[in-house]
């Protein structure tokens, strides 16, 4: 996370830690199951506990999205706090899939919008949100 915030990270770290453990925080974790015979990744809704496959292989978390249901300017919204993916799974459509899932969650819960904030210095995130999600 530090890379995204640059020199602002020391000030942001405490805020981020509080946001991540807040009771209203919701997560979708993406797990990769090694030795499953495919390169398949499975998104699991959960509490962050490591899952096991049928074969007992240990799952590795390769990404997550953190969001909350909140009110912004009198409008109920899903606010995306974090979307992070390991470099090995970036560029494969997983980020787009997670954002589509967030949009579906917002729609099913009658929310007015999906909102997020991106650091101006985070060019790859800006390109993703502006270029790939329109």
TrEMBL record:
Q: Does the keyword Transferase apply?
A: yes
GO MF term list: histone H2A acetyltransferase activity; histone H4 acetyltransferase activity; protein N-terminal-serine acetyltransferase activity
Q: Key word Cytoplasm present in the record?
A: yes
Location of the protein in the cell: Cytoplasm; Nucleus
InterPro entries according to UniProt: Acyl_CoA_acyltransferase, GNAT_dom, NAA40
> Per UniProt, which keywords does this protein have?
Acyltransferase, Cytoplasm, Nucleus, Transferase
**Would you say which domain of life the source belongs to?**
Eukaryota
Q: Give start and end of each N-acetyltransferase domain.
A: 12-134
Name the enzyme's class. transferase
CDD domains the UniProt entry points to:
NAT_SF
Which reactions is this enzyme annotated as catalysing?
N-terminal L-seryl-[histone H4] + acetyl-CoA = N-terminal N(alpha)-acetyl-L-seryl-[histone H4] + CoA + H(+); N-terminal L-seryl-[histone H2A] + acetyl-CoA = N-terminal N(alpha)-acetyl-L-seryl-[histone H2A] + CoA + H(+)
Gene Ontology CC terms, in alphabetical order: cytoplasm; nucleus
Protein's recorded name: N-alpha-acetyltransferase 40
Q: What is the scientific name of the source organism?
A: Vitis vinifera (Grape)
Protein encoded by which gene: naa40_2
């Amino acid at each position: 996370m530090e890379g995204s915030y640059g020199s602002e990270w020391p000030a942001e770290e405490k805020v981020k830690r509080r946001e991540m453990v807040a009771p209203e925080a919701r997560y979708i974790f993406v797990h990769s199951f090694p030795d499953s015979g495919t390169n398949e990744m499975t998104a699991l809704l959960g509490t962050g506990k490591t899952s096991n496959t049928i074969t007992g292989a240990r799952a590795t978390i390769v990404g997550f999205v953190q969001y909350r249901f909140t009110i912004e300017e009198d409008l109920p919204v899903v606010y995306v706090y974090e979307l992070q993916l390991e470099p090995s799974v970036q560029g494969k459509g997983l980020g787009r899939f997670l954002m589509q899932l967030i949009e579906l969650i917002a729609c099913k819960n009658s929310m007015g919008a999906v909102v997020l904030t991106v650091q101006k210095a985070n060019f790859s995130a800006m390109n993703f949100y502006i270029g790939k999600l329109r």
